[in-house]
Amino acid sequence: MEKDFSLSLEGTTLTVKLGETLGINNAPLLMEDLNAYRGKGVDKVVFDASDMTYISSSGIRTVIFAKQKLEKNPVIEFKNCCDDVRNVFNMTGLQNYISFV
Amino acid sequence: MTVLRFQPIRGKAEEIINAILRTEEVVSLPAQAYTIHLVVEEIVLNVIDYAYPAGEENGYLEVRTDKVGKVFSIEFRDHGIPFNPLEQAAPDTDMPLEERKIGGLGIFLCKEMMDESSYRYENGENILSFKLYGSEKE
């Protein structure tokens, strides 16, 4: 597995800078890292997808995890999401619960 | 047609996925790369996680990729416990994000993204097949 993402907390906003893919190669690691922010008052998670070209169901699970397990029911935002990835969110019906910017 | 055979164990998941994505048939379809990658990842992980719960040493995953005219097909075979993943109930895509179950999206996405999906159990093997129509090099 490769850790090609980084997380940073500024106030109550957690930014996740994603790599090229979010799937089996790195999603379990991201979920572990997100878990470390439980109880830290995060009310917004920004996924910076500027470099991302692929997400699988393992990757989508990390987005659902962020929404459900960070205590404050955080707002989920995706920055610069490519069409292929956006299309997968549309198929799963999650596009209505994510802000795409 | 390309036929590949693997030992489906968790530590080899990425290696198996990458080997399938490097087959001639898959490489020739860059416009469908996303769809094929997703299906390969979801099904390989399903077989690794569920086909051989007792950790059978002789467990295998055989993958056949083919392209006839404009139709791309991929078939996954294992001799693990009989299981038709296509019968799995579809997730409720209208349910709010905060109420969603964390799992259950993989097979749903495969069915949504491929043009045809089928399952049969034959000679002790689970045979799961997918097809994409109009697959062309772009």
Task: Explain what this protein looks like in three dimensions.
Chain A contains three helices and seven strands; from the N terminus they run βββαββαβαβ. Chain A is α/β, with parallel strands linked by helices and 101 residues long. Chain A is globular and about 35 Å long. The model of chain A has no long low-confidence stretch (mean pLDDT 92). Chain B has one domain (2-132): 2-Layer Sandwich (Heat Shock Protein 90). Chain B has a five-stranded antiparallel sheet with strand order 1-2-3-5-4. The two termini of chain B are 21 Å apart. The mean pLDDT of chain B is 91. The chains are: A alpha/beta (101), B alpha+beta (138).
The CATH C-level class name of chain A: Alpha Beta
- Rg of Cα set of chain B: 15 Å
Main sheet summary of chain B: 5 strands, antiparallel
Q: Helical segment tally of chain A?
A: 3
The DSSP helix count of chain B reads 4
Distance between the termini of chain B: 21 Å
Q: What series of H and E elements makes up the topology of chain B? A: EHHHEEHEE
| Fraction of residues in helix of chain B | 25-40%
User: What fraction of residues of chain A sit in β-strands?
Assistant: 25-35%
Describe the secondary structure blueprint for this structure:
The complex is a heterodimer of chains A (101) and B (138).
Chain A: E1 6-10, E2 13-17, E3 21-22, H1 27-35, E4 44-48, E5 54-55, H2 57-69, E6 75-79, H3 83-92, E7 99-100
Parallel strand pairs in A: 2-4, 3-5, 4-6, 6-7
Antiparallel strand pairs in A: 1-2
Chain B: E1 2-6, H1 13-21, H2 24-27, H3 33-51, E2 61-68, E3 71-78, H4 106-113, E4 116-122, E5 125-132
Antiparallel strand pairs in B: 1-2, 2-3, 3-5, 4-5
Helix pairs in contact in B: 1-3, 3-4
